[in-house]
Amino acid sequence: MTETLNVSALGVGRRWSVLVICALALFLVGLDTTIVTTGLTHMGTELGVDAGALSWVVDAYTVVFASLLVTAGALADRFGRRRVLRIGLGVFGTSSLLCAVAGTLPMLIVARAVQGVGASMLSPVALAIVVNVMRDPRERARAIGVWGAMFGLSMAAGPLTGGVLLAVFDWRALFWINVPLVLIVLVLVALVVPETRGEKVRRFDVPGQLLLTTILGIAVGVLIEGPGRGWQDRWVLSGIVVLVVLVWVFIRVESRRQDPLIDPGLFRIPSFTGAILGAVAVFVAFSMTLLLTTRIVRESWGWAAIDAGALTLPMALGATVFAPVSGLLVSRNGPRRPLIGAGALPAAGGACLLIAVESGEPLALVAAYLLVGSGIGCANAPITNTAVSGLPPERAGVAGGTASAARQVGTALGIAIAGSLLTDARPEQYAGASLPGWSIVAACGLLLIMVGTLARRGTHPRHAE
């Protein structure tokens, strides 16, 4: 199946307009993740649930999101990327309405899972459109830098907007706000974004999809329920055993399929493996930092929602400023130096978080936010560029889906771990309970440094094709 448009005929203005509109889809995904985090305390109070159960409000979304990303990319390559993007926007908007009217925690969790289905059709498909429109490797690297900056903007908008909405309305407004945004993006996509398809039709890997969804669900469930039930609980131990067996089965099944959901052979490519591990590490650090500090500032320090949201602005500022700078550096010199810098920043941020939480000093927390956010901004461009450059353009949907799936796996793991740390703690105990979390944030930074150190100097955008 050939592409329906000769994208090389698009002018510079049209290409960058497509980038901006597709980045708005990413903005929706990032906004929803960060804005919901600010309202978890309010949801728990109204619905009468504890901190451990609230983790499912976030992870029901991220688990479904992560597990369907690669399949969504493959669907887009086959049936049309703009078409799948528009369907995803429709599902995302409709499920946001369901979240807003949910009267119980189970209803909210189910609606969030449906929202994850819609979100899975947004970021990887939008990235695939950008990759296919931006055929020049240098232009693509710069575009991915802008792509990362949009995530930084969503980080700024999420906590601050959430704080304002919570001050004026209630937690349901966190979902109502998605509806007009989705309508705006739908109109812009219809007017500007061209339809493209992949040249190779891939078979759908149903066994792989089912296995991946089950693996992620069990892994997150064990992390969320383990601290409360106890790690020696028979259900927790059974979950761990089943998880190990399913991972082994997944590798065996995928190794034998002609068109696997995730090709295990790709992980023999050091650059691809490094990009995936780096993506997981970055978003473990980000999600743990955001959730733990939000709970501490709101419940231990007693800050209002809008003040807590404003406090996260340095994190968003760092991500927004450093994302395009990192994209420029990748386009000129490759991913090695940006990755090393991206690791050093959250490693230092973890140390600052330890000081900030122990001392209760807001300025130390501001410094930590700035360091972690800057690290996220530095990491996105080299990670994304390495992942999408590792596969041919006709499989851009799958490449984008794999990279995005790694991010969402990191987010789900980070939220689950953070929630487990605070499960049995009272607000006045949050500072001590969160200490292992800051060590994990610093360790994620060290992992990125290692990935950057091992990155080949020859992995340069001008050689990517």
From TrEMBL:
Positions of transmembrane segments: 18-41, 53-75, 87-111, 117-134, 146-169, 175-194, 206-224, 236-253, 265-288, 308-330, 339-357, 363-383, 404-423, 435-455
Family annotation (SUPFAM superfamilies): MFS general substrate transporter
Biological process annotations from GO: response to antibiotic
Domain Major facilitator superfamily (MFS) profile: 18-460
Protein name: Drug resistance transporter, EmrB/QacA subfamily
NCBIfam families cross-referenced by the UniProt entry: efflux_EmrB
One MF annotation (Gene Ontology) recorded for this entry: transmembrane transporter activity
GO cellular component, one term: plasma membrane
Compartments where found: Cell membrane
Chief site of localization: membrane
Pfam families: MFS_1 (PF07690)
Keyword Lipid metabolism in record: no
Membrane topology of the entry: Multi-pass membrane protein
